[in-house]
Amino acid sequence: xxxxxxxxxxxxxxxKIDRVICSRRDRHLLPIKNKIRNLLMADxxxxxxxxxDRHCICKFFCRKDFLDAYEDxxxxxxxxxxxx
Length: 84
Fold this sequence. Notes:
The chain is mainly α and 84 residues long. The protein folds into two domains: 1-26, no CATH class; 34-84, no CATH class. Helix content is 44%, strand content 0%. The N and C termini lie far apart (52 Å).
């Protein structure tokens, strides 16, 4: 199948989880397919790339909350980050 047809027409009808990683162009699907890497990316997003300190609020949330916040960020629904 032609790459142009696949990426412009077919990809929008296939869910990201069901897509096959065919080339380097599809590397953005790796975190979606790997749950551990997806959780790691969510943890980095929640902490804004800084290490966790003793006053961090991440201890009050579960993994599902981290993943939901990261999914919202990836879908364009960013929350306002208030850093102290």
